[in-house]
Design a protein that fits this description.
Distance between the termini: 122 Å
Largest sheet: 2 strands, antiparallel
Helix content: 40-55%
Strand content: under 5%
Shape: flat
Length: about 240
């Protein structure tokens, strides 16, 4: 009898546990979203946003890791929103470099691989549609799912978290479709407007100033420091 041929594929150690955790968390979060009548109150979305963030952490650990800054020191650090020319996108390295640290150098500027952020408006219907997509994708996941399928799951869950987070913000009279919980800017041109929209418009029209690098004085090694010797004394002073 011929020996059976075994596949060389080995299930990753973390995959069964994380996949089971993802499937156990998803139904309760989905049911909680569906029980909200209509638009709902912002306080009802607080717990939903927390549950979706925990669900996103599980989906992120399932998917391949992403280097968002192209930096060897801070691969998952914050991204500089306005890096100077020929500087890398790592905010921590750029902050140290602006402070005058010559050792701070981030990676070359590349396309930042961020998780998906759905476009506004952020509504309860948009959250329900996103949850239907997540349920369909998670239902098809298995131990041999490709890295693209796992990355798609992380993107979809992150988008649902963004929508729930925006819906959990206190709502104002601005009725801004992009930022439902944004405060009002009473001094904006044309009357009170959404503060976040006014800030975005001002940022797009304003040019970033050149970076200022502080020059720190260099200290010499102890052996090279000159010692101040007392001057010669003149004899006969006061004679």
């Amino acid at each position: 009898m011929d020996n059976p041929q075994h596949s060389a594929y080995r299930i990753p150690t973390k995959l069964p546990f994380l996949l089971g955790e993802l499937r156990s968390r998803l139904p309760s979060t989905d049911d909680r979203i569906r029980t909200i009548p209509g638009r709902g109150d912002p306080t009802e979305y607080d717990a939903i946003a927390d549950s979706l963030y925990k669900l996103f952490v599980t989906a992120r650990n399932l998917a391949p890791s992403r280097n968002t800054t192209n930096c060897s020191t801070h691969p998952n650090g914050p991204v500089d929103p306005a890096p100077p020319e020929e500087w890398g996108p790592c905010l921590l390295c750029n902050t140290n470099r602006r402070a005058g640290d010559p050792r701070a150098r981030s990676g070359t500027a590349t396309a930042v691989n961020r998780y998906e952020i759905p476009p506004p408006p952020y509504t309860h219907e948009a959250l329900l549609a996103r949850m239907r997509q997540i349920n369909e994708v998670v239902f098809e996941l298995h131990y041999r799912s490709s890295a693209q399928d796992l990355a798609l799951t992380a993107d979809l869950v992150h988008g649902a978290f963004i929508i729930a987070r925006e819906l959990s913000r206190p709502r104002t009279v601005s009725r801004c479709p992009r930022h439902p919980g944004a405060p009002l800017d009473p001094a904006a041109h044309g009357g009170p407007r959404c503060l976040f929209c006014v800030t975005d418009e001002a940022r797009r029209t304003r040019t970033a100033p050149p970076p200022q690098i502080r020059d720190r004085p260099r200290r010499l090694p102890r052996g090279n420091r000159r010692r101040t010797e007392p001057g010669p004394t003149t004899e006969g002073d006061g004679a």
